[in-house]
Specification:
Helix content is 2%, strand content 45%. It is an all-beta fold and 424 residues long. It has a domain of 145 residues. The strands form 8 sheets. Strands 3, 4, 31, 32, 33 and 34 form a 6-stranded antiparallel β-sheet that branches. Strands 5, 6, 7, 8 and 9 form a 5-stranded antiparallel β-sheet that branches. Strands 22, 23, 24, 25 and 26 form a 5-stranded antiparallel β-sheet that branches. It is globular, with a radius of gyration of 20 Å.
Length: 424
């Protein structure tokens, strides 16, 4: 049975599988198999807990050499989570190599990293932890991990921000062109309902924190921001909140910087969820396309058994409201439920997504636009997880290489999660 923990922990876990199933996973030697839907699924790594990490949370990010990086919420040397590197085989047909480049130690070092890492132009990785940091609070940290200066050296990690109130800088961080880091926390802030923050780099590579917005200022304001932010070319930030709006069923919001460059940011609610067929409780990331349209997922209401929807918001031509369209309603087998993620392949003009629920134990899906205006969008399942050798509970955005091979992670099942690829 799938369960969800308290909001204070903000993660999900599956009951343990039988010893027989785990043994089947360990015996799985040939890492490539054709599962459902005529796609080629390849197991890149099966996590075991210590020291290689457990329960990858947030997908992968790639460097220029084809290596992929991600986080595990648990495991590592101290069982407070890890950051890992997956390297492709030197020869075609060989095995991928997994190496832990940082094991979190708890305390001031942070604990339980979550969501996708981001990489700057110098190869430095940025992310956040849900716990650790301040001894008085343990509310989480934002960190930077710098690559080795020479071959064979160690990565250098440092905490660039320690939260001192609230908890959970939950949803990952983003970077702007000047090296500033942006993020949100689910709780804390003036009203205890979350805040958005900015970390600005200084000349000595330290960072200065600024609170951009305190959520929950009014009854209908956005409350408890969830998922990563997105930024447009004007510096506006977009995100979703799990609660808030007219019926307290969540919002899509835009944070606008002050025109003078100093002062308070303002929050504009672009959509307030009302439930029913149009969805509610957004939890995933937002996609911003070149025309300024927003795409996202609502994880409740709508669809079979209220499995949620994929929506589009189109900006107004004047001063009117944003126009909402439901692109897909999830059924019982094709996705939906908690923590879905979307990625936009601008070259192929399609979306890829993961869903922790749907099918047997989660799915990877593709969403393609209609051939002609007014026709329906087309969703197809690329892989249905079985909960065995292929893992379960995919979390985080899908990424892909130049050949169109998709890469992602599964949070649970055989072993303690998996990293995989799918060749369409």
């Amino acid at each position: 049975m799938w369960t969800r923990s308290s909001a204070a922990r903000c993660f999900i876990r599956r009951n343990m599988f039988s010893l027989v199933l785990f043994a089947m996973a360990l015996i799985f030697v040939s890492t490539t198999a054709n599962f459902a839907n005529a796609q080629t699924f390849t197991l890149l790594h099966m996590f075991t807990g210590s020291p290689d990490g457990a329960n990858p949370f947030g997908g992968l990010v790639a460097d220029r050499n084809g290596n992929y990086y991600g986080t595990t919420e648990y495991g590592g040397v101290h069982n407070y989570g890890s950051i890992f590197e997956l390297s492709p085989p030197a020869l075609s047909g060989g095995a991928w190599t997994e190496a832990v480049i940082w094991s979190f130690a708890g305390g001031a070092d942070g604990s339980y990293p979550s969501f996708q890492l981001v990489m700057d132009g110098g190869g430095r990785l940025y992310g956040e932890t849900q716990g650790g940091g301040s001894a008085a609070c343990g509310c989480g940290t934002v960190f930077e991990l710098a690559p080795p200066k020479e071959s064979g050296g160690n990565w250098a990690k440092r905490v660039i921000y320690t939260l001192t109130s609230g908890d959970h800088p939950y949803g990952g961080v983003i970077l702007d062109s000047g090296g500033s880091v942006y993020g949100t926390q689910v709780h804390g802030g003036t009203f205890g309902l979350g805040q958005a923050f900015k970390l600005s780099p200084n000349a000595n590579r330290s960072f200065t924190e600024t609170t951009l917005y305190n959520f929950g200022a009014t009854h209908a304001d956005s409350k408890q921001p969830f998922g990563p932010l997105n930024m447009d070319s004007s510096g506006n930030l977009y995100g979703v909140s799990l609660y808030g709006g007219m019926r307290n069923l969540g919002t899509v919001y835009r944070l606008t910087p002050p025109a003078s460059g100093t002062g308070s940011w303002s929050n504009s609610i672009l959509r307030t969820f009302i439930g029913g067929a149009s969805g509610c409780s957004p939890e995933g990331n937002l996609i911003l396309d070149s025309l300024g349209r927003l795409y996202g997922t609502a994880t409740g209401c709508g669809g079979v058994a209220d499995n949620g929807v994929i929506f589009q918001l189109t900006p107004p031509t004047g001063s009117g409201p944003w126009v909402e369209s439901v692109l897909h309603t999830f059924g019982a087998t094709d996705g939906g439920g908690a923590y879905p993620s979307l990625s936009l392949d601008t070259k192929a003009e399609v979306f890829y997504g993961t869903s922790y629920y749907g099918g047997l134990y989660g799915v990877v899906f593709k969403l393609a636009p209609p051939a002609a205006a007014g026709e329906a969008w087309s969703e197809s399942v690329l892989h249905t997880f079985t909960g065995g050798v292929d893992g379960a509970g995919p979390l985080g955005p899908i990424v892909w290489d130049a050949n169109g091979v998709l890469y992602g992670t599964g949070f649970e099942a055989a072993g303690k999660g998996v990293a995989f690829s799918i060749t369409p």
